Amino acid sequence: MERLESSFVIEEFIRGIGLTKTLKDSHGSESFIVDDMLVVIQDNPEEKCIECFSFIGEIPASSEKLLETLLEANFLFRQTGGATIGLSKATRVATLFYRIPTTDLTTSRFFEQMEHFINVSYHWKLRIEEMSGEIPSETSLSYDNTLRV
Asked: 94 forms bridges with which residues in the sheet?
């Protein structure tokens, strides 16, 4: 798939979920907010994929249990829907990273993949907030496969 086609699919997704404004940087990354969560999409033609990042929370300094939970979730992508959880040592910000191959990519497949990615990201955002004591533990942490914008 050519860069132009990937850009088209990204633009269609952004329009399709009703966003009228995104932040676009000089590298072509599109950034937007969904449920108070920053999501970044960028085309990577060298790797023949579209890369997706979400910022899912800040990890408190004394959070061994939360770090263990994130590591366990990351193990063989068991609880991340195929995405990878990352953590910046300097800022203690947790991210979720996902690649969508652009080979034979269709708009509908991209919509499905992005919906899944955003739902998994939101699930982990809530889980981090809960384990950090930012939200009550009785809050449901399951994602329901509906896209929230």
From this structure: 57, 87
Question: What CA–CA distance (Å, rounded) separates 37 from 33?
Answer: 5
Upper half-sphere CA count for residue 11 (Cβ side, 13 Å)? 7
Instruction: Report the predicted TM-score, pTM, of the whole model to 2 decimal places.
Output: 0.83
Q: What's the pLDDT tens digit per position in 53-106?
A: 999 999 998 889 999 999 999 998 889 999 999 999 999 999 999 999 998 888
Q: What is the pLDDT of residues 104-120, one digit of tens each?
A: 888 999 999 999 999 99
